[in-house]
Structure to design on (485 residues):
């Protein structure tokens, strides 16, 4: 089976969020199970060709409504996975970041979908490789199922199945009508799009025209059927229920491994973490300029600072808990200015208890996972979430809301001897719920150390690798192929 994944980002070349981690690691897991999986992404200007041994493969002329553009295809092998990077002036090859202005992003990602079609044809003609399944991800590449559908009357395209993965349905690429018209894209006459007024919604187009629709966790697949989580696409999702699959994201456990992670000051595993993990806690306290104490729990956050993540609930709760309990807090992230300011203010008001690192720092992120005791992730909604899985793998207990992938991965503590549980779960979207659960976790840390260790062992021993998920993806790909044959 030949699979081509396409996305706006993929580790290690371009990363803004969890989408990049998935597209960078899933193909590796697929190939380990005998699937010829490859990836095609934009060739952004900031990507270091020398570092990744990227070479020029070929170029072709792409004719479109406004003229002709020369498209250059570059390639490399990374972690045994072939990657193809597309450059075309002025859209891709000059810029220094993945995402820019909304209007420009609309225009250039629609164009990327078009040149990806051209690249598929050229790969077939020049190197004799063509996928059985095209796997697109989020709105940036969701026009491709429609473009493929428009070509299915031709033998060359008739047996190409399409799958779309929804990583976050809140980001839809809507109001794209003028951009689509200007790019010469045909009108969309799919009935469900027309009667729900979604013909200019890029993610909606992908959902309507893909052979199979997937999300990044089983719980999220259920949630997006309803308006509170599916937004204006919930009705469209309802029309695709029979083709909707929820597959939990995995982790690249070769990278996210506390036993070998070079960014930790002391490596550890599930057998020796009780003696070795505390070294990382002391290092984190020292780096954050907090009192070095083993008897005080550290609450950690590594996140994009966005309203989706529930920090409007967490900030008042943290302020009250820091004012009343012997606890420390460390946050790493950037995002919405009001949230950045609120965390900075927490740092200023509690200088001996709280530290805010308002930046991106991959090494510090892993040190927080390895050094904190409680990992806070109070999201209003979370399609999958990877932070809670990373935290458990590194011996921290997550404190999460009962939603999406958080509900699929974190087992609530039984409040006893920890015969079950890997963390602490709250349900209501209220600051008081976060505060109460923080008190519960802090009390457990102090009063039930044996239960705490049992949950750490259970979390560190949980298999979050891509192996099981990759098998589910292969079954889904086969189901998509079966639909068109």
């Amino acid at each position: 089976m030949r699979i081509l994944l396409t996305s706006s980002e993929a580790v290690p070349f371009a990363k803004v969020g969890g989408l990049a981690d998935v597209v960078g690691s899933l193909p590796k897991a697929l190939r380990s199970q005998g699937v010829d999986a490859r990836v095609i992404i934009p060739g952004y200007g900031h990507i270091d060709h020398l570092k990744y041994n990227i070479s020029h493969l070929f170029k072709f002329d792409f004719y479109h409504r406004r003229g002709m553009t020369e498209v250059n295809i570059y390639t490399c092998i990374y972690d045994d996975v072939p990657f193809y990077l597309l450059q075309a002036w002025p859209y891709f090859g000059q810029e220094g970041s993945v995402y820019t202005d909304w209007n420009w992003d609309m225009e250039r990602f629609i164009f990327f979908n078009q040149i990806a079609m051209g690249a598929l044809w050229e790969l077939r003609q020049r190197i004799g490789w063509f996928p059985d399944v095209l796997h697109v991800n989020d709105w940036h590449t969701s026009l491709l199922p429609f473009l493929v559908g428009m070509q299915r009357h031709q033998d060359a395209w008739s047996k190409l199945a399409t799958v779309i993965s929804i990583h976050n349905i809140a980001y839809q690429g809507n109001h794209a009508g003028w951009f689509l018209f200007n790019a010469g894209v045909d009108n969309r006459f799919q009935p469900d799009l027309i009667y729900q007024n979604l013909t200019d919604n890029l993610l909606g187009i992908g959902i309507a025209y893909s052979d199979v629709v997937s999300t990044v966790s089983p719980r999220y697949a259920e949630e997006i059927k309803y308006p509170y989580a599916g937004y204006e696409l919930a009705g469209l999702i309802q029309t695709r229920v029979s083709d909707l699959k929820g597959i939990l994201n995995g982790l690249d456990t070769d990278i996210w491994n506390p036993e070998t992670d070079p960014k930790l000051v002391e490596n550890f595993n599930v057998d020796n973490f009780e003696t070795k993990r505390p070294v990382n806690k002391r290092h984190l306290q020292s780096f954050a300029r907090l009192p070095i104490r083993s008897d005080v729990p550290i609450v950690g956050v590594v996140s994009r600072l966005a309203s989706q993540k529930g920090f409007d609930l967490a900030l008042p709760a943290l302020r009250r808990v820091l004012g009343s309990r012997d606890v420390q807090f460390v946050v790493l992230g950037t995002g919405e200015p009001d949230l950045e300011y609120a965390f900075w203010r927490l740092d200023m008001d509690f200088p001996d208890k709280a530290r805010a690192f308002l930046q991106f720092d991959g090494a510090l992120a892993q040190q927080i996972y390895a050094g904190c005791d409680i990992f806070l992730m109070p999201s209003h909604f979370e399609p999958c979430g990877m932070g809670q899985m990373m935290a458990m793998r590194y011996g921290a207990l997550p404190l999460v809301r009962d939603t999406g992938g958080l509900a699929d991965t974190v087992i609530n503590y039984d409040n006893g001897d920890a015969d079950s549980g890997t963390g602490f779960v709250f349900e209501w979207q209220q600051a008081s719920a976060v505060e109460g659960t923080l008190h519960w976790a802090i009390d457990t840390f102090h009063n039930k150390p044996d239960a705490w260790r049992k949950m750490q062992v259970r979390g560190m021993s949980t298999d979050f690798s891509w192996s099981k998920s990759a098998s589910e993806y292969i079954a889904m790909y086969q189901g998509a192929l079966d639909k068109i044959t």
Remarks:
- The mean pLDDT is 96.
